[in-house]
């Protein structure tokens, strides 16, 4: 069911495909899971408020701008792009790519 949430969001954001990339991961097990991911797009601010079509799901999630100079950020990005690592103790279940 959680994977359907990710896929549904990706479908609704289809017009962003030329300008955005994301690696979204599902952590945990059935009936006890969390969704987390990294998004990359042009600019320094959230892209979702730029279009009413893109605002459907983004308020359901917490957003944090990453600092590329920090080693923690580099580790986090590597984990999310390779779908391997400790993920801060979270148990990786599966991942989805938005491109």
UniProtKB/TrEMBL annotation:
- The signal peptide, as residue positions, is none
From what organism does this protein derive?
Trichonephila clavata
Question: SUPFAM superfamilies annotated for this entry?
Answer: eEF1-gamma domain (SSF89942)
Q: Name one GO molecular function term.
A: translation elongation factor activity
Q: Name one GO cellular component term.
A: cytoplasm
Alphabetically ordered keywords of this record: Elongation factor, Protein biosynthesis
In this chain the EF-1-gamma C-terminal domain maps to 1-99
The protein here is known as: Elongation factor 1-gamma
Output the PROSITE patterns linked to this UniProt entry: EF1G_C (PS50040)
- Presence of the UniProt keyword Ribonucleoprotein in the record: no
**Matching InterPro entries:** EF-GSTs, EF1B_G_C, EF1B_G_C_sf
């Amino acid at each position: 069911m959680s994977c359907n949430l990710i896929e549904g969001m990706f479908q609704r954001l289809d017009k962003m495909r030329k300008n955005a990339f994301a690696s979204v991961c599902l952590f945990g097990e059935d009936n006890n899971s969390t969704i987390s991911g990294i998004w990359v797009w042009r600019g320094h601010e959230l892209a979702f408020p730029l279009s009413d079509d893109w605002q459907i799901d983004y308020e359901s999630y917490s957003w944090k701008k990453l600092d590329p100079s920090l080693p923690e950020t580099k580790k986090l990005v590597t984990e999310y792009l390779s779908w391997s690592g400790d993920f801060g103790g979270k148990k990786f279940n599966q991942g989805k790519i938005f491109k």
